[in-house]
Amino acid sequence: MREVKRKFGERFVDDPALLSLYSREASFEEPAAGPLGIVYPVNEEEVAWLVKWAYENDITLYSQGSATSLSGNTILTKPGLIVSFEKMANIVEVNPTDSYTVVQPGIRIEELNVELARYGVFFPVDPGSVRSATIGGAIANGAGGMRGAKYGSMRDWVLGVNVVTGRGDLLKLGCRTLKCRNGYDLVRLIVGSEGTLGLVTQAVLRVAPLPESAVAVRVYYNDISSLVEDVVRIKSARIWPLFAEFMGPAESEEVGLNRAYTLFVGVDVNRGAEGGILARLKSALTGHIADEAIGIEEAMRLLEPRRRLFSAQVSIMRRQLGDQGVLVIEDVVVPVSKLPEAVRRIAELAQKLEVPLSIGGHVGDGNLHPTTWFKRGDLEGAKRARRFIEGLGKIAVELGGSVSAEHGIGTLKRELLRLELEPAVLEYMRSLKAVFDPKGILNPGKII
Amino acid sequence: MREVKRKFGERFVDDPALLSLYSREASFEEPAAGPLGIVYPVNEEEVAWLVKWAYENDITLYSQGSATSLSGNTILTKPGLIVSFEKMANIVEVNPTDSYTVVQPGIRIEELNVELARYGVFFPVDPGSVRSATIGGAIANGAGGMRGAKYGSMRDWVLGVNVVTGRGDLLKLGCRTLKCRNGYDLVRLIVGSEGTLGLVTQAVLRVAPLPESAVAVRVYYNDISSLVEDVVRIKSARIWPLFAEFMGPAESEEVGLNRAYTLFVGVDVNRGAEGGILARLKSALTGHIADEAIGIEEAMRLLEPRRRLFSAQVSIMRRQLGDQGVLVIEDVVVPVSKLPEAVRRIAELAQKLEVPLSIGGHVGDGNLHPTTWFKRGDLEGAKRARRFIEGLGKIAVELGGSVSAEHGIGTLKRELLRLELEPAVLEYMRSLKAVFDPKGILNPGKII
User: Fold this and answer.
1) Of the residues A155, A182, A209, which one is the last residue of a structural domain?
2) A443 assigned to some structural domain
3) Transmembrane ranges (chains A, B) (predicted)?
């Protein structure tokens, strides 16, 4: 460790207060060990040096962006060093004509989009944690978010990465062009690998032109089945929504809307076509249309209450449990046509397990975020919450979906992944891990 | 081989005439050996059986769709069996609400789109060979095509694959949903792996709603620099073209247009917004606008002459060389802003090497298809053509592009790939190959 201290100087930290702060993430997964220190590299040579040193000295490394992950993706499973990318947070290049930007991993998505807007382009991946989530974390976690139905997730928007593997090799992967066929697609192997195959030191991201205009509606429903059936109806009408989000009655009331199931749908359109699309959208809906918007900013404003779902859930939980509540935000995905059955079965599951349920999510792409909570220290409650997570995964897999849409596997869903994938597939994944990280020093105990 | 004959009966063929027919692909690469036979499996169990048998008996396998590849991706490098997917060509499911279709690998892209159109959706990847190219071949080759600037390439549209690896394991990978985070992204490792990691037996493809409407223009230019500068101008104006294609003066004349550099640009738009977008598009252009179109079918009709570029090139070559011409269609990509420099340097290269040059391509995404030809048996001409290919790759890499945008590496560009990727990256690719195909029985001598 002396060499690391010498190399990084003040950028090596082992102050216990800071170590404790960096040990937690947004999930309720508990770290199994404390960090030996936090290292703040400033360039990729330092990252490569650090990983080589760790490889030679059998030291475990945990890369960290802003630790907003929700599946135990960043927490320590045994003692090791945290590698923070806070000091590698620059935008290296913005090239709107060539539709790409080059960035360091520590830049926050929202910060990046503020800069990109000056060039008339944007980076479409929009996770709930967009204000603090970093590009490096979003790559590691294969992040998704609100614009998924139209724009997909990280794997669709990362053109290239520089990555330091668990052997300390710095690999420059991918291209600056959208089309690129230079051998096996290692870029997308890194995307979503949760820091278990390598540490991303730079990324080339594809950017899209800002939509010209948009329309949006906010719709109320008496029951959740009618709401998700309307989402199926929108998709059946071949409307390709920019977002289709929802929240429940208690949460809607909490953010100042009616006490009803609330659906938010937005569609990006060409200027001049707003009226026609809005009419088509409204005619596909059976709920009570409470609000409508024309224009990008107006559509985003209409969506704004949905962005407060998380704080609404926290408020509701606080009224029940005071300061001692632990919020569990889950993440599953099913084909859109299976949403009615999924929400029915999820409600039944919560009832059976006697856990509180708040359900919201990105229904446009079949992605649900069922949320529950329990009191800190209530071991029985925590056990019920874990049974709830397990049950959700089973429902998703049975309906042809996946145990995770966008939060990833981490420590939380390792067992559930075994429900979805056959043993042979897991065996190949373990072999790939061994190629990139033969000593298992990168974020061990995650995914596989 | 006796067991294979017994297992496949009449679906094992070793008639020399057929063997010779199946030995060739659309490229000018020569096979280094003849096939031992052709096998036509009808289901994935048969494919898995065959690969297991080949693994145990050290027999090489070459999977084949319609052999339209242009980089030596399918040709035999040593004796082995050809696995044809002609008899696995069904559409298993079309699900427009959930935005996916499940298909067998032998289905042709155009056939698939005819069926999908009945549901109001389409599969956007549109290679030049779309009438004969199969989905299995397109996955193996990571195909691109005319709609790349807007819709990307195969990797963006394959949600899941069933694949038999070189160890004979049948792996079910990916999801039916767009968002999906079930471990490492092995789906995209298979896409573009050119049949060297596994044989795809089924695929889940993402589909998109058919565009509501479109506008398009055909524009003439006196020189190619003005043409590609207009493409840069379109991209700088933040217009996101559905296609931006071009062809040279001789080829344009050959298909019945003016003797000029011809640019075809189409943009998909909402119904009602055609006028506004067409005006914006036209105001970004400096060339002579010879034709314009409003509506999807009209835009596709305007593009139609561009689809005859290949036969125009063949006609021009025939007038020079008679029946003995060998056409070499190249494939490189550069960032769009580098197109003016790229086309200038490519013309200089052709002149220096004294090779004929016909240039066309998908300029909207920076993808050029410089084309040359030589007389069969003219060893000096063939050598010059190879030097031309090498020079093109160097230009692309120097300008920040790639040695292949969409045709892949095959046998033709193995050496060039070494120009683009550092040795460490190639080493990791070789290790991945060893995981999936430890005995090297799948399409050897390609990519790495």
Assistant:
1) A209
2) no
3) none
